[in-house]
Amino acid sequence: MLMPSIFGESLLDDFFEDPFDNYAYAMNTSNLMKTDVKDTDQGYEITMNLPGVKKEDVKAELKDGYLTISASTNSNKDEKDGNGRYIRRERYSGSCSRSFYVGEDVTQDEIKAKFENGALTLLVPKKDQKPAVEDKKYIAIEG
Question: DSSP 3-state assignment of 14?
Answer without folding.
Answer: helix
